[in-house]
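User: tokens in, sequence out, please.
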């Protein structure tokens, strides 16, 4: 049996324009069997003043609108040597151009390379680390 999963490697150099930072991270996503829930684990390292983490719609070299929130903490900001955020997204989690659509709309963006994770900081409000979401098919044993 195959489980549909996705991954995004997060770096400052992937930002548009690039950000020079010590921060880095990774996000892993797993889709349930009937594609109605998308669980995620977001890990960040060496991050100062984190305020938001989102999924955005957009290709590799473009900035786009927010379509789902992974973390929303305006006050206080979070600074971590190593931190993890976990959660689950459903159709009700979708915002912006995907609001009111089924989760499959987000999954289609992810499958086609038209979505990315962006983690924002107080010092880099438009994003400090970013990574394009890509498919990672794993076989269950």
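Assistant: Sequence out:
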């Amino acid at each position: 049996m195959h489980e549909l999963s996705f991954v995004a490697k997060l770096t400052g150099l992937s930002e548009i324009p690039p950000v020079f930072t010590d921060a880095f991270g990774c996000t892993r996503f797993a889709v349930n069997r009937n594609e109605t829930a998308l669980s995620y684990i977001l890990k960040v390292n060496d991050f100062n003043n984190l305020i938001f983490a989102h999924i955005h719609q957009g290709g590799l070299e473009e900035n786009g609108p927010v379509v789902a929130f992974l973390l929303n903490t305006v006050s206080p900001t979070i600074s971590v040597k190593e931190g993890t955020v976990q959660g689950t997204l459903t159709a009700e989690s979708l915002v912006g151009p995907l609001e009111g659509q089924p989760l499959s709309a987000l999954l289609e963006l992810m499958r086609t390379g038209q979505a990315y994770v962006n983690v924002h900081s107080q010092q880099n409000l438009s994003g400090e680390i970013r990574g394009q979401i890509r498919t990672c098919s794993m076989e269950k044993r």
